[in-house]
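Please decode residue identities from the backbone states below.
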């Protein structure tokens, strides 16, 4: 059985929120409908988003690290949100494993949001319907688009290629290889939901204050090659980002 999913590399996510804004733009104009925003420029903004980036700091000064953690629906293989839905609006699509919502059947009871241990569901306050990430189901199967564009909007928008998309049940897919070779892990596997989305663990780097023996500032002769070609070869940039920088 095919199971499409995201694999997110926490090493290269810079918290730019390009995934958040591209997701909002595509889904507002797509099958999901108009996603509500209330008081967007006031002190207490509120709105419907399928994808969010949480940013927090770890460690103790001066040895601290900032981590950006994107989170959306994990498209669980055993989704607890589906069996609790009283109208059958929440369902798991057999052909690709995506967990979706039939808006015509949703009554906004919020049972699915209470059942989801990841807080991945959001009620649209204007439509009174439950919404969530669809992995751009109306995009990835759209034959009117060039094949290279048949990916979730967040994947195409990421300037550092931190987001990978593919079939995790295909051992030869890019996502499966990344999980296998780089220790990809599921979020809160103890809940038994078998999340499809995976994260590539963040690797700690030695960091001290400038001037120390292990200072990250290096002489010009020892500086790492940061040319566009070198970064592309290491997989640190996608083509869209390279074109922008060029």
């Amino acid at each position: 059985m095919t199971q499409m999913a995201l694999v997110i590399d926490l090493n290269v996510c810079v918290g730019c929120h390009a995934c958040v804004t591209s997701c909002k733009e595509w889904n507002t104009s797509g099958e999901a409908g108009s996603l509500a925003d209330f008081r967007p420029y006031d002190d207490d903004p509120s709105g419907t988003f399928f994808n969010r980036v949480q940013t927090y700091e770890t460690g103790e000064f001066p040895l601290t690290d900032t981590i950006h953690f994107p989170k959306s629906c994990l498209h669980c293989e055993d989704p607890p949100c589906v069996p609790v839905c009283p109208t059958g609006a929440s369902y798991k699509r057999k052909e690709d494993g995506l967990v979706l919502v039939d808006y015509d059947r949703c009554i906004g009871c919020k049972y699915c949001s209470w059942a989801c241990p990841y807080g991945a569901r959001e009620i649209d306050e204007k439509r009174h319907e439950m919404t969530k990430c669809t992995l751009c189901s109306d995009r990835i199967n759209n034959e009117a688009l060039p094949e290279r564009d048949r990916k979730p909007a967040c994947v195409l928008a990421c300037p550092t290629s931190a987001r990978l998309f593919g079939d995790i049940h295909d051992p030869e897919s890019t996502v499966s290889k990344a999980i296998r070779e780089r220790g990809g892990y599921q979020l809160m596997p103890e809940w038994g939901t078998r999340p499809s989305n995976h994260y590539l663990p963040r690797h700690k780097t030695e960091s001290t204050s400038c001037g120390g023996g292990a200072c990250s500032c290096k002489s010009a002769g020892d500086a790492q090659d940061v040319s566009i070609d070198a970064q592309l070869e290491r997989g640190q940039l996608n083509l869209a980002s390279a074109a922008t920088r060029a």
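Observation: The chain has a mean pLDDT of 85.
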